[in-house]
Amino acid sequence: MARRTRRRGDIGLSRRSRTVIALVGIGLATAACVPEGVTDRGRQVSELYTWFMVAAAGVFVLVVGLLSWSIVRYRGQPGRDVIVPNPSRGNIPLEVAWWAAPTALVIVLVVLTAGVLSQVDARAARPAVTVQVQGFQWGWRFAFPDAGVEVTGTPANPARIDLPVGESIAFEITSRDVVHSFWIPAFLIKRDAVPGHPNRFDVTIEETGTYSGQCAEFCGLLHSRQLFEITAVQPDQFQAWLDEQAATTGEAP
Fold first, then answer.
1. What is the DSSP code string of 213-225?
2. Out of 14, 121, 126, 151, which residue is the most buried by the measure of CB atoms under 10 Å away?
3. Is the pLDDT of residue 120 over 80?
4. Alpha carbons 86 and 240: distance in angstroms, whole number
5. How far apart are alpha carbons 30 and 14 in whole angstroms?
6. Cβ(129)–Cβ(163) below 8 Å
7. What b/e sequence results for 130-161 when a residue is b if at least 16 CB atoms lie within 10 Å of its CB, and e otherwise?
8. Within 10 A of 197 (CB to CB), how many other CB atoms are there?
9. How far apart are CA 212 and CA 38, in angstroms?
10. Is 206 helix (H, G, I), strand (E, B) or coil?
């Protein structure tokens, strides 16, 4: 019976193929972990995440590639002496390179982060909609001062509000009792609600849909039920909802 043999080059090619497939799989899995924002600020944060993941993937591939090459190059085999690398007292260009490359990478990431943070913290001089948010144990109160509308939620009946897409929205956040944290995961922004210290962030919602929110700071017994919901709609639909709420404000609990 004929026995099939494989040449050394074939084995090496197979190993390289498996390595490439593994790295591609890791890259795809990593890309799936990057969140996507539905607001202008969230999109910027998501892009920053992507740059960090690309940098991390590049470092990973470089380190694992060098380790794999060293293992294969200097591995021992039966009937062959172990290969020992030639000792070296130093290599100035190489030493400068492995100091300069990580330093440059960190500087680039810091600059990108500072730029995104400045954009996330930017405030519109005249936002189209202002929403006053007050956290309390264990619910949220949303007030639209320009329309005289208030919506209050409870653990049993969380607050639900509409907001327009494509328009600047200012959230002015505070707390009535303890520290809470106003968090909408799809917005990729979170702000603390601290008694006596108003906080604020501005966003423009870019996609219609319903987005859940919650308190992200442990604030007591029913913390896990301190929820709310935001539905992003077209501006005319938002105005219709606002008019409806204004007409029934007196009936609100």
1. EEE-S--STTGGG
2. 151
3. yes
4. 78
5. 24
6. yes
7. bbbbbbbbbbbbbbbeeeebbbebbeeebbeb
8. 11
9. 12
10. coil
Q: Which residues are paired to 173 by β-bridges?
A: 133, 199
Amino acid identity of residue 72, one-letter, is: V
Residue written as token pair 């709310």: 228
146 vs 81: which has the higher pLDDT: 146
Contact 214, 135 (CB under 8 A): no
**Rounded Cα distance, 194 and 157, in Å:** 23
Among residues 76, 37, 31, the alpha carbon closest in space to that of 187 is found at 37
* Residue with the two structure tokens 């987005």: 211
Structure tokens at 215: 């308190």
Smallest CA-to-CA distance from 37 within 138, 200, 186, 189 is with: 186
Residue linked to tokens 């956040």:
173
Q: Which residues on neighbouring strands pair with residue 164, listed in sequence order? A: 233
Angle (nearest 5°) at CA 247 between 153 and 200: 45
**Contact (Cβ atoms closer than 8 angstroms) between residue 160 and residue 227:** no
CA 220, 139, 216, 225 torsion-angle sign: positive
Q: How far apart are CA 24 and CA 28, in angstroms?
A: 6
Token output for 172: 């002015």
Question: What is the rounded distance in angstroms from the CA atom of residue 142 to the CA atom of residue 159?
Answer: 8
pLDDT, tens digit, for every residue of 29-73?
A: 555 556 678 898 888 898 898 889 888 888 888 888 888 888 777
Q: What is the pTM of this model?
A: 0.73
Cα–Cα nearest to 203, from 187, 191, 216: 187
